[in-house]
Design a protein that fits this description.
18 helices, alpha+beta, globular
C-alpha cells in the first residue's frame, strides 16, 4: 500500500493519510472526486469496489466515510473521509458515476443526515417520505412524534426526481420526470408475495416488456442504526438477528467479531468451532429458503415444500442448540451463549448424507426441467462489471464471475483451516445464480464435515467485563453472509455505546441492480429474476 500512498499524495498533496485500523485518507470535499477517480481507475490496483458508504455527523461537520477495496485483491482496503461544516445546506459531490452502488447509499445519507450530493441524478430521500421533518441520524435530531405524526391518508406518488447539477454558471436545482409522460406504469408490491417482503417497484411497461423500474423502499424501516447509538454492545446483538433474519447467526457473528477485535477479546477455540458450524448450518438453511421460494415463484410449489422439509431438519438442530429457530440469539461477545447439546454432533453428521441425497432430488425435480431452464437461462443478465460497480456479492455476484467470498479473501473464525471451493460461474444469468446456491450447500456440508468430529474441549465463552467500552477509533468487520458481504462499522468515542453504528446490507446492493437486469425482459420474468437475487427486505430497511 506504500505505492497507493504515493498515488494519493500525487493526486491530492494536501490529503491527510493516517495509519488507523485501516489506511485512512481525509480530503476536503472539493478534492474528493479527483481522488476517488484516481483510485477507481488506478492501473495496477483499481479500487473498483465500494464496500461501504457511511453518512456521519461528527458534530462540527457532516460527512461521509467510504470503504474502498479492489476486485483484484479484496484484502486491499482504503478508507476515505470527507465532510462539510455547513449544517444548513450541506453539499458533497456524488460518486455515482464511479461506483453504481453509491446511488441508493447517497440517497440514504440524504434521508438520514440531510447531505445532498451534487450531480446525483435522483436526490429523493430513500427510506423516508419527502415531507419527513428532520434527519434521524443527526445528533441534534428531534424525535418528538408530534413532528412526524402517523398519517392514515393515502398519498399520491410523485414520479419526480429533484437534483443539483453543476453548470459553468454554478449550481442549479432541477427536477426530472422518472418516467416518460406516456409511460404505462404498474405497481408491483409492496403487498405482493413474490417481492419477498414489503418492497415496492414502480414498473414502466411496453406491452409485456419491462422498460424501466423505480425502487421504493422503507415500508418497514425500523431505525435500527439510530437505536444502536443508545444501546450497549451486548444489547445491540439482539438487533442483528432481525436484519437479514435468514442469516441471523452470521450477522450476529459479524458484530461480535467487530467488538472482540476492538476490545482485544480472544474467543476460545471450542466457541470458534461451534460458531463456524452454526454459520454454515445457517447458510444452508437460508439457501434452502432461497431455492424453494425461487422455484415457487416460477410455479413449482412442490419444490418449495421439499426445501422447507430439509430446512426443518436444520431448524431442529438450531432449536436444540440455542432455543431459537429463526431468530437464533446464540452468539455473544466472547463466544456462544450455550454449549452444544449431547447429540449435536450425531444429529449434524446424520443430516449431511440426508441433505446430499435430497440435493440430487432437487436436480431431478427442477434443475433440469426444460421449462424452468427456459425461464432462467440468459435471463436477467448481470455483467461482471455491473456486479462489481453495484457491489453485488454472494451467490449473485459470483454468478457473474466476481470472486468475492469473504471466507476466502479475508478468512475469519476457522475458515482458514478448512478446504472448500468458492463457487463461481461466468454466465451472469438467473440460472447461474440458481446453481450457485445449490453448489454452495454442498460446500457448506464439506466445511461442516471437516469440523464436526474435531470440536475441542474447553470454554465456550471468554470472560468479559460487565460493561464493555471500546477504545476510541473506527472498526470494520466484513463477513460472508448467505446473500453476500455483510459489513459492520463502529465508530467509538470510548463509551459503552457506539457513536455511530452502520450495517452494510448485501440485499440493498442486490435490489439496486434490479432496474438494470430487468430492463428489456418480460414482466413474467421479473419475479423469477428477483428470486434469483434473493434479497431480504428487513436487511435493506434497517
Amino acid at each position: 500500500m506504500e505505492n497507493i500512498k504515493k498515488v494519493i499524495l500525487d493526486a491530492v498533496p494536501e490529503a491527510v493519510i493516517e495509519e488507523r485500523n485501516k489506511l485512512t485518507v481525509t480530503v476536503e470535499p472539493n478534492k474528493l472526486r479527483h481522488l476517488a477517480k484516481t483510485l477507481r481507475y488506478h492501473a495496477e490496483l483499481p479500487f473498483d469496489y465500494l464496500a461501504q458508504l457511511t453518512g456521519m455527523d461528527w458534530g462540527e461537520k457532516l460527512g461521509v466515510i467510504y470503504l474502498l477495496s479492489s476486485s483484484k485483491d479484496l484484502t486491499k482496503e482504503l478508507v476515505i473521509e470527507t465532510g462539510t461544516t455547513d449544517r444548513e445546506k450541506p453539499l458533497l459531490y456524488t460518486v455515482t458515476d464511479l461506483w453504481g452502488t453509491a446511488h441508493y447509499n447517497e440517497r440514504e445519507v440524504f434521508a438520514m443526515l440531510g447531505i445532498r450530493f451534487i450531480n446525483n441524478p435522483d436526490m429523493r430521500r430513500f427510506f423516508l417520505n419527502s415531507d419527513w421533518v428532520g434527519f434521524p441520524l443527526r445528533k441534534d435530531y428531534d424525535a418528538n412524534p408530534v413532528l412526524n405524526p402517523v398519517s392514515l391518508e393515502s398519498k399520491e406518488i410523485e414520479d419526480i426526481a429533484p437534483r443539483i447539477v453543476e453548470t459553468p454558471q454554478g449550481l442549479k436545482e432541477e427536477k426530472n420526470n422518472i418516467f416518460a409522460d406516456d409511460a404505462y406504469i404498474i405497481n408491483i408490491g409492496p403487498q405482493h408475495p413474490s417481492t419477498h417482503g414489503v418492497m415496492h417497484f414502480r414498473v414502466a411497461l411496453d406491452g409485456e416488456i419491462v422498460k424501466k423500474i423505480d425502487v421504493h423502499s422503507g415500508y418497514i424501516h425500523r431505525g435500527i442504526e439510530k437505536m444502536c447509538e443508545n444501546m450497549t454492545y451486548p444489547q445491540i446483538l439482539h438487533l442483528t438477528d432481525r436484519l437479514d433474519y435468514l442469516s441471523a447467526n452470521i450477522n450476529r457473528h459479524a458484530l461480535c467479531m467487530c467488538v472482540e477485535k476492538a476490545a482485544e477479546i480472544e474467543v476460545p477455540e471450542r466457541a470458534q468451532y461451534i460458531r463456524t458450524i452454526m454459520d454454515e448450518l445457517n447458510r444452508i438453511d437460508s439457501h434452502l429458503i432461497a431455492w424453494g421460494t425461487m422455484c415457487m415463484d416460477l410455479g413449482a410449489t412442490t419444490a418449495f415444500i421439499y426445501g422447507m422439509r430439509e430446512r426443518e431438519q436444520i431448524l431442529n438442530i438450531i432449536e436444540k442448540t440455542s432455543g431459537g429457530r429463526l431468530i437464533i440469539n446464540y452468539n455473544v461477545i466472547g463466544g456462544v451463549m450455550f454449549d452444544i447439546y449431547k447429540d449435536f454432533q450425531k444429529d449434524v453428521k446424520e443430516f449431511i448424507p440426508y441433505m446430499r441425497k435430497h440435493l440430487k432430488q432437487y436436480d431431478k425435480l427442477f434443475t433440469g426441467n426444460v421449462i424452468a431452464v427456459g425461464r432462467m437461462k440468459n435471463i436477467g443478465i448481470l455483467t461482471t462489471e455491473d456486479a462489481i460497480s453495484y457491489a453485488v456479492t454472494g451467490p449473485a455476484g459470483r454468478g457473474s464471475g466476481f470472486s468475492c467470498d469473504m471466507r476466502k479473501h479475508q478468512p475469519y473464525a476457522l475458515y482458514d483451516k478448512v478446504q472448500f471451493t468458492e463457487v463461481i460461474r461466468n454466465e451472469c444469468d438467473s440460472y447461474a445464480r440458481y446453481l450457485n446456491r445449490l453448489d454452495e450447500i454442498e460446500e457448506s456440508l464439506k466445511i461442516i464435515e471437516q469440523l464436526i468430529d474435531n470440536i475441542p474441549e474447553g470454554d465456550i465463552q471468554a470472560k468479559t467485563k460487565a460493561i464493555i467500552k471500546l477504545p476510541e477509533g473506527d472498526y470494520f468487520q466484513r463477513v460472508e453472509a448467505a446473500r453476500g458481504e455483510f459489513g459492520v462499522f463502529i465508530q467509538s468515542r470510548g463509551d459503552k455505546t457506539p457513536y455511530r453504528m452502520k450495517f452494510r446490507s448485501p440485499s440493498m446492493a442486490a435490489v439496486s441492480v434490479m432496474p438494470i437486469i430487468c430492463a428489456e425482459e418480460k414482466i413474467s420474468d421479473f419475479i423469477g429474476i428477483g428470486g434469483s437475487m434473493d434479497y431480504v427486505i428487513p436487511d435493506i430497511d434497517r
